[in-house]
Write a structure and sequence with these properties.
Number of helices: 1
Low-confidence stretches: none
Strand content: under 5%
Radius of gyration: 70 Å
Shape: rod-shaped
Largest sheet: none
Mean pLDDT: 91
Oligomer: single chain
Protein backbone atom coordinates (compact mmCIF):
# COMPACT_ATOMS: atom_id res chain seq x y z
CA UNK A 1 0.00 0.00 0.00
CA UNK A 2 1.03 3.44 -0.71
CA UNK A 3 0.53 6.08 1.91
CA UNK A 4 1.30 9.61 1.85
CA UNK A 5 4.15 10.80 3.95
CA UNK A 6 2.20 12.60 6.61
CA UNK A 7 -0.51 9.92 6.74
CA UNK A 8 1.91 7.09 7.46
CA UNK A 9 3.48 9.06 10.20
CA UNK A 10 0.17 9.77 11.83
CA UNK A 11 -0.76 6.09 11.58
CA UNK A 12 2.61 5.12 13.00
CA UNK A 13 2.11 7.61 15.81
CA UNK A 14 -1.32 6.22 16.52
CA UNK A 15 0.03 2.69 16.34
CA UNK A 16 2.98 3.47 18.62
CA UNK A 17 0.72 5.43 21.00
CA UNK A 18 -1.75 2.50 20.98
CA UNK A 19 1.12 0.07 21.58
CA UNK A 20 2.50 2.34 24.29
CA UNK A 21 -0.95 2.58 25.86
CA UNK A 22 -1.31 -1.20 25.73
CA UNK A 23 2.21 -1.63 27.09
CA UNK A 24 1.42 0.82 29.91
CA UNK A 25 -1.89 -0.99 30.47
CA UNK A 26 -0.07 -4.35 30.52
CA UNK A 27 2.68 -2.99 32.79
CA UNK A 28 0.02 -1.50 35.04
CA UNK A 29 -1.78 -4.84 35.29
CA UNK A 30 1.49 -6.74 35.78
CA UNK A 31 2.68 -4.29 38.43
CA UNK A 32 -0.77 -4.45 40.04
CA UNK A 33 -0.60 -8.26 39.97
CA UNK A 34 2.93 -8.22 41.40
CA UNK A 35 2.03 -5.72 44.10
CA UNK A 36 -1.29 -7.53 44.80
CA UNK A 37 0.58 -10.85 45.19
CA UNK A 38 3.16 -9.14 47.38
CA UNK A 39 0.38 -7.49 49.39
CA UNK A 40 -1.51 -10.81 49.71
CA UNK A 41 1.72 -12.54 50.73
CA UNK A 42 2.48 -9.81 53.28
CA UNK A 43 -1.13 -9.93 54.50
CA UNK A 44 -0.96 -13.73 54.81
CA UNK A 45 2.34 -13.36 56.68
CA UNK A 46 0.82 -10.70 58.92
CA UNK A 47 -2.20 -12.94 59.52
CA UNK A 48 0.12 -15.85 60.36
CA UNK A 49 2.15 -13.63 62.68
CA UNK A 50 -1.02 -12.33 64.32
CA UNK A 51 -2.39 -15.86 64.57
CA UNK A 52 0.87 -17.07 66.09
CA UNK A 53 0.90 -14.09 68.46
CA UNK A 54 -2.74 -14.63 69.42
CA UNK A 55 -2.03 -18.34 69.84
CA UNK A 56 1.23 -17.83 71.74
CA UNK A 57 -0.29 -15.75 74.52
CA UNK A 58 -3.02 -18.25 75.46
CA UNK A 59 -0.50 -21.08 75.05
CA UNK A 60 1.90 -19.42 77.44
CA UNK A 61 -0.96 -18.68 79.83
CA UNK A 62 -2.11 -22.29 79.52
CA UNK A 63 1.43 -23.55 80.07
CA UNK A 64 1.81 -21.28 83.10
CA UNK A 65 -1.53 -22.43 84.50
CA UNK A 66 -0.67 -26.05 83.73
CA UNK A 67 2.71 -25.71 85.50
CA UNK A 68 0.94 -24.11 88.45
CA UNK A 69 -1.64 -26.91 88.48
CA UNK A 70 1.15 -29.49 88.30
CA UNK A 71 3.00 -27.81 91.15
CA UNK A 72 -0.18 -27.67 93.23
CA UNK A 73 -1.12 -31.26 92.47
CA UNK A 74 2.41 -32.53 93.05
CA UNK A 75 2.65 -30.67 96.35
CA UNK A 76 -0.77 -32.08 97.31
CA UNK A 77 0.33 -35.59 96.38
CA UNK A 78 3.58 -35.00 98.28
CA UNK A 79 1.62 -33.90 101.35
CA UNK A 80 -0.62 -36.95 101.08
CA UNK A 81 2.40 -39.22 100.60
CA UNK A 82 4.17 -37.68 103.61
CA UNK A 83 1.00 -38.03 105.68
CA UNK A 84 0.66 -41.65 104.58
CA UNK A 85 4.35 -42.26 105.32
CA UNK A 86 3.91 -40.77 108.81
CA UNK A 87 0.85 -42.93 109.31
CA UNK A 88 2.75 -45.98 108.09
CA UNK A 89 5.67 -45.18 110.39
CA UNK A 90 3.27 -44.85 113.32
CA UNK A 91 1.57 -48.08 112.27
CA UNK A 92 4.91 -49.85 112.00
CA UNK A 93 5.89 -48.55 115.44
CA UNK A 94 2.61 -49.74 116.91
CA UNK A 95 3.07 -53.12 115.23
CA UNK A 96 6.63 -53.32 116.55
CA UNK A 97 5.47 -52.48 120.07
CA UNK A 98 2.65 -55.03 119.88
CA UNK A 99 5.02 -57.68 118.51
CA UNK A 100 7.55 -56.87 121.23
CA UNK A 101 4.83 -57.08 123.89
CA UNK A 102 3.58 -60.40 122.52
CA UNK A 103 7.13 -61.68 122.25
CA UNK A 104 7.88 -60.68 125.85
CA UNK A 105 4.68 -62.32 127.02
CA UNK A 106 5.49 -65.47 125.01
CA UNK A 107 9.04 -65.46 126.42
CA UNK A 108 7.71 -65.04 129.98
CA UNK A 109 5.28 -67.91 129.40
CA UNK A 110 8.08 -69.99 127.98
CA UNK A 111 10.31 -69.14 130.94
CA UNK A 112 7.51 -70.03 133.33
CA UNK A 113 6.95 -73.23 131.40
CA UNK A 114 10.69 -74.00 131.42
CA UNK A 115 10.89 -73.18 135.13
CA UNK A 116 7.81 -75.27 135.79
CA UNK A 117 9.30 -78.07 133.72
CA UNK A 118 12.57 -77.81 135.65
CA UNK A 119 10.70 -77.81 138.95
CA UNK A 120 8.63 -80.77 137.81
CA UNK A 121 11.74 -82.55 136.57
CA UNK A 122 13.47 -81.82 139.89
CA UNK A 123 10.45 -83.03 141.82
CA UNK A 124 10.25 -86.19 139.70
CA UNK A 125 13.99 -86.67 140.11
CA UNK A 126 13.71 -86.28 143.87
CA UNK A 127 10.75 -88.62 144.11
CA UNK A 128 12.52 -91.11 141.82
CA UNK A 129 15.70 -90.73 143.88
CA UNK A 130 13.77 -91.26 147.13
CA UNK A 131 12.01 -94.25 145.66
CA UNK A 132 15.32 -95.61 144.31
CA UNK A 133 16.99 -95.09 147.69
CA UNK A 134 14.12 -96.71 149.54
CA UNK A 135 14.10 -99.61 147.09
CA UNK A 136 17.88 -99.90 147.36
CA UNK A 137 17.63 -99.77 151.12
CA UNK A 138 14.92 -102.42 151.01
CA UNK A 139 17.02 -104.51 148.60
CA UNK A 140 20.04 -104.11 150.90
CA UNK A 141 17.93 -105.14 153.88
CA UNK A 142 16.62 -108.12 151.96
CA UNK A 143 20.13 -109.04 150.84
CA UNK A 144 21.55 -108.60 154.35
CA UNK A 145 18.61 -110.55 155.75
CA UNK A 146 19.24 -113.29 153.21
CA UNK A 147 22.96 -113.23 153.99
CA UNK A 148 22.14 -113.28 157.69
CA UNK A 149 19.87 -116.27 157.24
CA UNK A 150 22.47 -118.00 155.09
CA UNK A 151 25.17 -117.09 157.62
CA UNK A 152 23.04 -118.37 160.46
CA UNK A 153 22.51 -121.64 158.64
CA UNK A 154 26.19 -121.82 157.92
CA UNK A 155 27.07 -120.93 161.51
CA UNK A 156 24.57 -123.43 162.84
CA UNK A 157 26.05 -126.07 160.61
CA UNK A 158 29.54 -125.09 161.69
CA UNK A 159 28.39 -125.07 165.30
CA UNK A 160 26.71 -128.41 164.83
CA UNK A 161 29.85 -129.72 163.15
CA UNK A 162 32.03 -128.38 165.96
CA UNK A 163 29.68 -129.84 168.54
CA UNK A 164 29.79 -133.11 166.75
CA UNK A 165 33.55 -132.96 166.55
CA UNK A 166 33.69 -132.00 170.19
CA UNK A 167 31.43 -134.88 171.13
CA UNK A 168 33.45 -137.15 168.94
CA UNK A 169 36.66 -135.87 170.38
CA UNK A 170 35.29 -136.24 173.90
CA UNK A 171 34.17 -139.67 173.08
CA UNK A 172 37.48 -140.51 171.59
CA UNK A 173 39.23 -138.93 174.44
Amino acid sequence: MFFRAFLLESLEKRRSSALAARAVHLQRHLRGLFWRRRFLSQRASAVQIQTARRMLRPQSQYARKRRAALVISSSRRGMQARKLARLLRVTVRIQAHVRAFLSRRRTARLRRFVCATRIQAGARRLSSLRRFRSLRKAALRLQSFQRMIAQRRHSRRDLADKKEEATLSTQIA
